Amino acid sequence: MDSVNNLNKLNALGITQTAGGAGSSTTSGTGGTGGAGSFKDVLLKNLNEVNQMQQDADSTLENYVTGKSGNIGEVISASQKANMAFSMLVQIRNKLQDAYDEVKNLRV
């Protein structure tokens, strides 16, 4: 469910996973989302959340391998959740890179 919440936050900022269109619509702390913070703050928060999901997946796998937990479903669920969050993060990075390249190639 955290991935869905992250996607909703990013969609509110104007970042989508669909093809076409450039990345973000706001860079200030007061724009668009009712005080959600600056784009940098939201991006760093989401980076930290993805990192935490990956660490949780590693710890659940470690617990399963060492015998502390016998629930393979929990391991698979945590791994898939971390994988999906990381995949979304890579897509966001790609969209931001595309937007940067597009702005860089604009003629003034």
Main traits of this protein?
single chain; 108 residues; mainly alpha; 3 helices; 67% helix
How would you explain this protein's 3D organization?
The chain is mainly alpha-helical. Helix content is 67%, strand content 0%. The protein has helices spanning 2-12, 39-66, 72-104. α2 packs antiparallel against α3 (72-104). The termini are far apart. The model is unreliable at 13-32 (pLDDT under 50).
In short:
With 108 residues, the chain is mostly helical. It has helices at residues 2-12, 39-66, 72-104.
Secondary-structure map:
Blueprint: H1 2-12, H2 39-66, H3 72-104
Helix pairs in contact: 1-3, 2-3
From N to C, what is the helix and strand string? HHH
Using only CA atoms, what is the Rg?
17 Å
Low-confidence stretches: 13-32
**Average pLDDT score:** 78
Q: What can be said about the biggest beta sheet?
A: none
The computed structural class is mainly alpha
